[in-house]
Fold each of these.
Amino acid sequence: MAMTTAGDKATPAVGDTTMTAVGEKTMTADEAVSRLESGMTLGIGGWGSRRKPMALVRAVLRSGITDLTVVSYGGPDVGMLAAAGRIRRLVAPFVTLDSIPLEPHFRAARERGELELMEIDEAMFMWGLHAAANRLPFLPVRAGIGSDVMRVNPALRTVTSPYDDGETFVAMPALRLDAALVHVHRADRRGNGQYLGPDPYFDDLFCEAADAAYVSCERIVDTAELTKEAAAQTLLIKRHTVTGVVEAPGGAHFTSCAPDYGRDEAMQKEYATTPWAEFAERFLNGPEKEGT
Amino acid sequence: MTVTRSEFCVIACAEAWRGAGEILASPMGLIPSIGARLARLTFAPELLLTDGEAMLVDVDGTVEGWLPYRQHLTLVTGGRRHVMMGASQIDRFGNQNISCIGDWEQPRRQLLGVRGAPVNTLNNPTSYWIPRHSRRVFMEKVDMVCGVGYDHAAGARHHRIPRVVSDLGVFDFATPDRSMRLASLHPGVTVEEVGDATGFALTIPDEVPYTREPTPTELRLIREEIDPHDTRAREVPEGVRA
């Protein structure tokens, strides 16, 4: 097997079947987004203002695609897409910047009455992704009943246990995605994605629930490099669920991507306090990474 | 040494986890976090605590386990957890709102969203911490039910709201119709003051006890080990209510 060093983009040797162009999925963020269309349902990984695929979100913002259904444990990804008017419908249990509890652009869009929202509980959201990943129409969840989640989502149905307990649950519908966007620490050229931070969040589940998944990463490395210093359990995302791999150093910035970098609080504060048009001008056209 | 209001609040929060056993204490907010750590260091040593992200840690920060969100959500539905959440609004039956103020379709003020309040309240004991008791928070009917109260829970098998702690006192639902009752007053607070700051009819027992004093050991732990920089006074400033 040909051994290459991290980030080596040398052409594989003739006869080396492990790195043929067929299995390679590397592309730029703009190429990934060029495969998306207006009206799609997009799942966005990470959680709040943590490990959000911001380089991919920026590419979406640069593109013309709009009328999106966005499915997200929401952070600045939701705030930016809402501020830019790209979201037709949002599916989320919350939107927050963590260190700044209330997301200003999401807030403004909601207070203007512009955002159609499917507001569901954190657990309902997770089971919706599980249902989609498992090709099930729904999964029963003990959450939502008795709360106004049922009032504001009149399409939600309940299901009663067929066993002796007879308990009634929410039948959480599958959150099937046209595409998923996630950001991890390392990936190989075939789409095996590795996280090195404290929490995988639900990024693997987003990829499994989607018809196509685009994984950005801090660094593309040779496959053998992935497990040289990290345990195999860090290999969160499997290549059969991945359509495209994008090398994007600083690709989660300004959200946190520990241990590679923490949240850029100064930049986040600037985002939260600057009118969107003004911020977008600099943010969308600037370099991928600003002072992480 | 005079015990401050914020220290009574710490004790009132810590008491939520007394006798809870080997479960996860999930405090949200500063004073509940100090309370949970105090409980862990004193009368509830079996408690599990997190670092606010994915690690289970000792009070000194030593990692003893890993609890990413996906496992945390299973722990919630497994019931081995007592969470103390915040509330932008709470009503007489303990319905809680952190989602939005006003009409949900186009809120006057968009807040966080329902987060995990619906799953929490149907699966593990859920208490609440309100750092500034007022009629804007303690109101007759919340705008959006996130955390489920006793009237909406309709006897759900794992539903329980053990206590509500505010800067004025401790409240529970030990009444025939499971509506809110004044359980104890923090020293220095009067029944009238609580009544004036509450936007619904509260059950007031004939004799209302005071929230207990911290022991000298507890006071030393709060002041010297858990919160040496007195951040608790920023959440509940001394003398503001006088």
Note: The interface with chain B takes residues 47, 74, 92-96, 101-102, 106-107, 110-113, 119-124, 126, 141-149, 151-152, 167, 198-202 of chain A (CB under 8 Å).
Amino acid sequence: MIETWQQQIKAAAAKGEKLAIKGSGSKSFLAPVRVGLTLDTRSHAGIVEYDPKELVIVVKCGTRVADVEKAMADAGQMLAFEPPHFGDDSTIGGTVAAGISGPRRAYAGAVRDFVLGAKVIDGKGDHLSFGGKVMKNVAGFDVSRLLVGSFGSLGVITEVAFKCLPLPKAQATRVFEMDAATAIEAMNRWYAEADPITATTWVDGKLHVRFAGAEPAVNTAVQKRGGEALVNDVDWWRDWREQRHAFFASAKELHRVSCKSTAPATDDMRTAIEWGGALRWVHADEASAAKIRYQASRAGGYASVWRGGASTHASAAQSLSDPLKDIHAKIKASFDPYNVFPSLSSSAGEGARQGG
Amino acid sequence: MQTNLAPFIKDTPQGIEADAILRSCVHCGFCTATCPTYQVLGDELDGPRGRIYLIKQVLEGAEPTKKTQQHLDRCLTCRNCESACPSGVQYGRLVDIGRSVVEEKVGRTALEKATRATLRKALLNKPLFNTAMKIGRAVRPLLPSALKAKVQPLRNAGTWPTAQHARTMIVLDNCVQNAMSPSIDFATARVLDKAGVTLKWVSAGGCCGALSHHLNAHDEAVTKVKANIDAWWPLIEAGAEAIVGTASGCSVMLKDYGHFMQHDAAYAEKAKRVAALSKDVSEVIAAEWPQLKAKVKASSDRISYHPPCTLQHGMKLKGGVEAMLKDIGFDLLPVADSHLCCGSAGTYSVLQPTISEELKSRKLKSLTAEGPSQIATSNIGCMTHLQSGTTLPVKHWIELLDERLA
Amino acid sequence: MLVFERPSETAVASAVDALRKDFGERAVTSHSVREHHSHGEGMRDAGLPDVVVFPETNEEVASIVKLCNQARIPVIAFGTGTSLEGHLKALYGGVCIDLSRMNNILQVNAEDLDCRVQAGVTREQLNAEIRSTGLFFPIDPGANASLGGMSATRASGTNAVRYGTMKENILGLTVVTPDGRIIKTGTRARKSSAGYDLTRLYVGSEGTLGIITEIQLKLYGVPERISAAVCQFDELSNAVNVVITAMQLGIPMARIELLDEVQMDACIKYSKLEGFAAKPTLFMEFHGTDAYVAEQIEQMKSITADYGGSDYRFADKPEDRTKLWKARHDAYWAGMSYKPGNQAFATDSCVPISRLADCIAAAKAEIAKTSLTCMIVGHVGDGNFHVQISFNPDNAQEREQAETAAAQIARIAIGMGGTCTGEHGIGIHKLDALKEEHGEAVDVMRTIKKALDPNNIMNPGKTIPMN
């Protein structure tokens, strides 16, 4: 398969044509506009190497995330960044290219923190290997992490090595009725006090806190913090991660706000808060979009359209400064000198760049 | 550290010693953080690691400059770095060698020479120094405040005990102490008298030799050392138990006599014997403490104590004085950074006044932070230096003991 | 144009003049200062910069870099001089930028668990200044390095298992680019990035893509309970197997460090440790609540018992812990002073944890072929360990043996799916190993270097082989 792709890329480069890299399409709504022949990554699937004792799993790009998670769960391990799938057939390649992490992100780390190495076919058709399979590696530039969130603009990610973590022994979710301001304060303080928190979400006037880890630690935290138990919390968190919760369904236009975790809540728009306060989801319309962006920048972060709405406006409003644009262009050209792959700025959904 | 000394010094006794010291240094830099001049100036070359490197370069044949000399001059020789060094680098000896080689190569300007000579001559010339201090005290009320601070009123020394005990010890005749604060030796004599020891004072013209040694007047230092040995020898033969230094700056030099005279065939053996008998007054008193303690009245005064560098780093005598003071009830206040130098460092306060003043004000700030009624220390240099910056009395700790003799 | 040789003397002289005019006494050309800035703590080879400048602001750094870019003169950033792979050697002379005067902590956002510092702030300085907030910054390479230098080399320390390395703990940077522009990467918000993740590119670029002048860092709450313990073994392999088991069970050790018998002997002597034998030893530390720490310790005790470990010696008091970890941090110097006059360098292999025992055994076998003294110390929880090879620098044969053994140990690690450098970096000493490890991928790294630094003025000759 790799050789076929290499030839396709070389041919496209020679003819000045474009290629679009695509997996199952589950995150297409986030990706740059893609034109040209589609290179479907799903034909390169399977687990290359997985010995649970090594705490490393090496996976081909087209492998379904669900399959990877199943194999790891059988061995008592997990992808600790809790990737959202956004579709049953969501692939590993797409997950890394989109650079999107789930609820555990604020506590365990982002996709990039678990990528130990990656193989990629660049715009010249060369198949290259960056990083490796070890926990620490400072040999040369950290290119494998640069690929995370690059949305297929630098090359075809063909294989990724992830760091594995053991599944927590115990887990419990507690629900607390409180307003947004109280919830923000609680999320930040409890985390600073070293509670074994692995996810937090405030939605519809309720704060959901997931404690996980060793049993005594979870029990102590539950006793200390109180709250109501959430039954069937595994399903609740999966729904939240996959954005199947009612909050998302009812949004016409949804904005994603990344800000400092202690930023005050905006009470005049329907909002959900997660990642300990650092990620906010806001229902918006044409009229409130500008206000959301303004408030986000005041809170030391920025807002972008996630679903619905006119994303190009958002993109124009928050474009990169000149020196940064210049650096981006140079990096892109280093990987893809003939512009075979889409550029990151030909964005259909500004949400695309907010990965992490 | 790898070394490759230049032919001019390689096989000399100095070169052999310096080479061994340089090789023991692994350049880790733990010394740098503790160095007082590095803390004030923040330049790598004004810390021990930088100075060791400079000395290494010079000994390996690099031409030193005035700047090299300045970095070495700025060292207080407090040897705080030796206490911090895990590898046991004998920095004090190395810097002595480095300074003498650099001085030979770079020389001194006429002004520097004159200042150093005057300082040495004035401090070593007892009649002159005594007179100067007497005049200073007489006109003290008329002096401007800056100078007034340097010339403190004389504390009444009292009388020397007359009892003749079977046990005897010799006290070193200090060059400056007896003029500036004669009460220290008198106090020592009285305290030892209570312990059944007669302290004998023999004049050999004064000075242990340290002053000349540190100003690179090697021959003058040797003369002083020989004069002392000659003066003490009859008393040593007659059974004197110890040679007592009442200023830690002198005690550390006395203990170094053996090393200092090792290449002098006529005096090497005698110097070794003298060094072995030499004790700081705190060691002597500590040995007699079980019987002395009962003869000292308790006190609950709040005091702070400054251990001189020559005591804690030079002789590695830590905590002994503090333990005795606490033992008779003194409220010994905690002092931040008590390992740091006060900036006196012999003639340093005169030769490097800016750094010295800065260190003095830092030291006084930590010494007075908890509100003591007086300050105690163990060395005349530190004592007068600190006294010049505070209105609180600064005394030798033996004076505090003497004041409380029952 | 690429700088592969010294710029002309006139170009250097006029640049030095210009810097003197702008910076006065903060532009230094004395030999001793240049010498001090030409090396880290590793092997010393000649290669002095022409001038050392001490800027105080981002703008001053930018002005120096701009000047050097126009004159095509190399620029080398200097933090505290504690790198190990020749990162600071001025191969082609040039301007050394000493960032030690940029030592302000710009913000501490206790509630947000982050802070922003200038590049010259050292890790100990940061921790001393934030102590009252109940927070700390965990990354602790042996030296009291500057945070700018730690970012530029992607440094890590003894507690990477629990807290990660620099790359996981940097939220954003201010960087002066090779053309003298000031850019900011990342944003204050932790979980965001606009466009490519440039922060990750600059972190670990060893000063070859730009000069890091400010860093936004994550901070952590000081745990309720910290407990340190030491356990000794008769066999090195048993100690290693304890670590492998602990990692596979997911016991969240804050620190787990291995010292072999020679290293332990050196540390006992150098750091004056009392009551320990010169045997293979594990230094461990547990962080968490009282109950959690107690459980971790129980789990570890049962594992060490299986492998014949000694009873635990605990250090719960802060001063005892400090002494213990200081001894560990000083292991490099302990090794250096073990044989006075000798030089030493340390290998830096990192392998998948399951191969750790094999890799250490193979490294030991490699050393056994020589007559050299070696000691092993490692952050074994990550699969990373160092063989410190001591040799007499005046003995050409010993030096050659040492270099051959080190190269061979790197090769063994790469062969086991590992890397030649887990934390020390490439510098000038591992350029060949990088090629061996990454093959053609080095071409892309080189292309990025050429694109972002077309005049090759940023720390030339380091990190990425240019031919």
Note: The radius of gyration of chain C is 22 Å.
